[in-house]
Structures are given as C-alpha cells and as structure tokens.
Design brief:
Glutaredoxin; alpha+beta; 27% strand; four-stranded mixed sheet
C-alpha cells in the first residue's frame, strides 16, 4: 500500500485542467520512485464516487491523503511548487 495517495480531479473539456495536467504529469514522473499512488479522476466519468466523497465542485481539484489518513485539499490549477508542497 502506498504511503500517500494523490488524487487529481479533472474534466477533458476543462482548459485549466489540461494546463495543470502537464504539471501533474511532470511531478508523477519525478516522484514515480517514491511511495505515492497517483490517481486521475475524470469527474464526468467518475465511477468511484470519490468526486462526491470529497465534494469536488471546482476543477482542477487535488486531494493528498497521508498514510495516517489525513487529507489536504487544494482547488484550482497548481504550479509545480504548490503541488510539491502538498505532496510533502
């Protein structure tokens, strides 16, 4: 089991989501050797119920869950530094 989970909520039609997706993908590649599970949820096709669970009303939206179960949420398009801070 991963020590942390990072969930990105997005939609394919969302322009800011596409821009944020590039930052997200870069961090995923950089952190791929660490114990973080990265999850992408398209809010229009969410069958997991996670968008409802986290009450996602604006996208992009990021949730980071620690090993202890603590959550940090941040809405909007994050830059690389902001995403790294959430993960740390």
């Amino acid at each position: 089991m991963a020590a942390k989970k990072a969930i990105k909520f997005y939609a394919t039609w969302c322009g800011p989501c596409r821009i944020y997706g590039k930052v997200w993908d870069k961090i995923v590649e950089e952190k791929s050797s660490e114990d973080i599970e990265f999850i992408n949820i398209d809010v229009d096709k969410d069958t997991t119920g996670l968008a409802a669970q986290y009450k996602v009303t604006n996208i992009p939206h990021t949730v980071v869950i620690s090993e202890e179960g603590d959550t940090i949420e941040k809405g909007g398009r994050l830059n690389e530094q902001e995403l790294l801070e959430l993960l740390n």
